[in-house]
Amino acid sequence: MADGYRGLFGAFPYAFGRTDSRLFKSYVLVGGLAAAVLSLFIVLALVVLIGQTASVQGGSLTLSRAFYIVVGLFLVTPVLAPVLLVARRHRRGLAVDTARRYDQWLAVAGYLFLFSLFIGLVISVPTEFQEQPTGLLAPIVSTLYALPQLAALLPPALAGGLIWLVHRVVSK
């Protein structure tokens, strides 16, 4: 392709160069770094799991290894989605007059997804590792600690849906 857009890795410099939104440019950098760090954590966790279970044959361990990959995709894909959607939109030249607004809203949705991952981590902290919260955010952290650990899935799921919703609503 002559325009410099070459799939996943080419989408980042392409989107960074084509957008007029500083907010989105910052998301390209932060989102790219977050996706790389998340991917590294998932790969390392998978390597550790394989190392700990190398002597065991198939069965449910094979399923748990595949589960790590699926969870990784559910974490990394929404981080990458705003960059890929903006790069695709600019490459196709769709609605140039609303491109900056589209880019800004997707950056906001992307940042909200990253924040939702943090909220999900706080909710999922095991009881034995929870410390007594202090400071301005103590009531919020206490409330998050009080939620069942399964509730940690809700903030990222809602924020991932928000990315899709922003794409559908703002692109019209």
TrEMBL record:
The keyword Metal-binding does not apply. The chain crosses the membrane at residues 27-54, 66-85, 105-125, 145-166. Residues 1-170 form the DUF8056 domain. The keyword Transmembrane applies. It holds the Pfam family DUF8056. Keywords: Membrane, Transmembrane, Transmembrane helix. This is DUF8056 domain-containing protein. It comes from Halogranum amylolyticum. The lineage of its organism: Archaea, Methanobacteriati, Methanobacteriota, Stenosarchaea group, Halobacteria.
